[in-house]
Amino acid sequence: MHTSTPTTRTASAWVKTGIGLVLTALMLFPLYWMVNVSLTQRDAIRSGGLFPKAFTLDHYQVVLQDQLPYLGTSLVIGIGTVALTLLVSAPAGYAMSSLFVPGRRVLNFCLIVAQMVPGVVMALGFYTVYTDLGILDTIPGLIVADSTIAIPFGVMLFSAFMAGIPRDLLHAAAIDGASHWKTFTQVVLPISRNSAVTVSLFAFLWAWSDFIFASTLNREGGSLRPITMGLYDYIGSQNQEWGPLMATAVVASIPTAILLVVAQRYVAAGVTAGAVKD
Amino acid sequence: MRTVTRNPAVSTLERRTAPETVPASAPPPRRRHHLSRWAGVAFVAPLVTYLVVFYAYPLAENVSMSLHRFTRATYVTGEAPFAGTDIYREVLTAPQFWPIMQQTAIFVVGSLVFQYVIGLALATYFHRHFPLSVLLRGLFLVPWLLPIIVSATTWQWMMDADSGIVNQFLGAFGIDPVWWLSADNSLWAVMIANIWLGIPFNLVILYSGLQNISAELYEAAALDGAGPWRRFWSITFPLLRPVSAITLLLGFVYTLKVVDIIWIMTAGAGSSQTLATWAYGMAFGKGTSAVIEYSQASVVGTILLLVALLMGLVYLAVQRKEEA
Q1: What is the 3-state composition of chain B as percent helix, strand, coil, each rounded to the nearest 5?
Q2: What's the pTM?
Q3: CB spacing of B43 vs A48 below 8 angstroms
Q4: Cystine design at B226: which of A224, B46, B124, B221 (Cβ 3.0–4.6 Å)?
């Protein structure tokens, strides 16, 4: 390959792109299939055409009628989870990275284990606790449960980033007489904006995607249940209607798509942040 | 975690790429010294409170439930009799316990092997930059970020015995339709879907690992006449070992705890039942007439909890070994 001329090298690069395209298409085929089925008329779905020849938007109309309340609930739960996650994890990240915290190693270990505890174990415990507290089937209850996925992650991401903030900056603030709180809110937080966006993004997506907590802690919540439960109702019904089912699946994927397009920059920034900081 | 499995992925990446935590080397002005001992505690207090109330308390309830005999009746009155280790004995000697352990092992090991091999192959492929490589690599992440219930539903329809696309495709090669979601085959069906779900995670972490390997090593090896295959086995694979260890460890944790992909596709029917779906089904299974076995579910939950604890220790050990 080292002796190849520029032309053959470009040609081989485009062959690689071609293979890359095929691999990506294979990987994303299930998603294409979901969209395809959602756009196919009811009686043509079973014949399994590769393109929605019998095109229709009827399934989406059904979804808009049935699923709007669930979408709203999911949005509220997602935003609530983001708020709670930031509130708890940003100050903790600052403490873990820049302040003296007794038992920091133990806390660090707890955060690692917390990310490994199976959701079903948490759900079992929460179910009992929530029954006692009387907050089963409520939105705040679900927000708290959903945030358990994001908070350990948030603390670790924030503290990894904040550890890279130049110490001089923090000391300068301290010499100027700034309190720890002031240093945190006026120096540390503004610099950590990208990390905050990354944490928020994942907290929102996990809350939006949650099935285990929604299906255990919020089973009887009626329309105050998230979209994953709206989808689950369709799956559970006797005569599975694949058209509306797939249309709901497409609608439930929209936030992922939007965030991936709009905020990809932030994700990349957050992921590489630790490495870039000196 | 996803869920996929999947939450500590980025945090690991962060931790791996982040510089060593710098302890505040120059002490802050003396008059504030006493204050800053408490500042750290104050800033970390919300987290500690949160962990105690919303992690430790539910987990303790879970363990307590596994030691008391809860039924639908005693659950309401809250007067479940203490049962000691009786329920543990019942669960461990239940006829379905060992088959489920075996299925869980096949599911976890099978998923891990394929996710890792395919993820590594793709990471190596995308590492050789070519036009559109960044965009295509980005697209590979989509399945990772989608709600698992969406992916699971789609796979369920694709694996439909009569009109699923998978059987149509196989039929084109003259292969008889496979009853993917039937009791005997369901383990393979959920494993295929789970492998698909886990590929992006493996791709991301292994790709970041590849980026830390110096290009000069490859150039030197190429000059010495080492072919691509030789370069992979002599440079890439050994130098990637720490990253591989973390990837497989986290993959193990996610695969062990996954419920939604299996529950949506098969409701844990037949061979697709794992420890996690077993616990879920016993406590929250569909239908009000079904016998609710909270205590038995908590026993399985406690077993899973112990495994998580063990894996946390292994994770720390791996990390420490890397830093040494």
Answers
A1: 75, 0, 25
A2: 0.88
A3: no
A4: B221
Q: Which domain holds residue B179?
A: 100-272
Chain A residues closer than 8 Å to B21 by CB? 97, 159, 163
- Domain's final residue, options A11, A33, A56: A56
CATH of the domain at A80: 1.10.3720.10
Domain holding A5, by residue range, is 1-56
Give the number of beta-carbon pairs within 8 Å between A and B. 336
Q: Look at chain B and report how many structural domains it folds into.
A: 1
For chain A, how many structural domains are there in total?
Answer: 2
CB contact under 8 A, A167 and B25: yes
Report which residue type is found at A81.
T
> What does the pLDDT look like over A141-188, one tens digit per residue?
999 999 999 999 999 989 988 999 999 888 888 888 888 999 999 999
Shortest Cα–Cα distance, B291 to chain A (Å): 16
Query: Which of B153, B158, B219 is the mutation pick for testing A, counting most A CBs within 10 A?
Result: B153
Which of A31, A56, A81 finishes a domain? A56
Residues of A in contact with B151 (CB under 8 A): 30
Query: To which residue do tokens 């529950």 refer?
Result: B263
Both A51 and A101 in one domain: the answer is no
Residue range A76-110, pLDDT digits in tens: 999 999 999 999 999 999 999 999 999 999 999 99
Q: Round to whole Å and give the CA distance between A47 and A50.
A: 9
